[in-house]
Amino acid sequence: QFSLAELLQSLAATVQPQCPAGGRLTLPAPDAALRLTGGLESLTGALANLCLNAFEAGARTVTVERLPAALGQLWLTVSDDGPGMAPTLRGRAFEPFVSGRPGGTGLGLAVARSVIERHQGTLRLADSAIGCRFEIALLARVTRGPAVLESQEA
Asked: Among 54, 45, 38, which residue's Cα sits nearest to residue 134?
């Protein structure tokens, strides 16, 4: 198990060194009480793939947002301000070996979806007026430890 805070920290550590000059990754506030089950590294890789694909496609800003969700779920979006995906590719975005970039393998989105599904989640390409927007749903639970009292000495 790991927390959303750990996932976001791992994502930042993976993506930020690879951001292009002038590129910006924006992340939601970390939450150590929200726990996820599975592989931290594999989920980091899936999310990093979405972010790095956006930068490679020409996005200057990639934003990861946490959306309100039902108890037991975590909803995240990964959106960018890039050129978006060609309409002819949108229906095939998650098919292996389908790529809109010269030199692209077409495996990134297929692998990202597979990783998220192995974590009992879903990944979908959502409609967006600008760039691309991916929606991710994952199983999560909130854990609250015992209250910690801080004392101040005068």
From this structure: 54
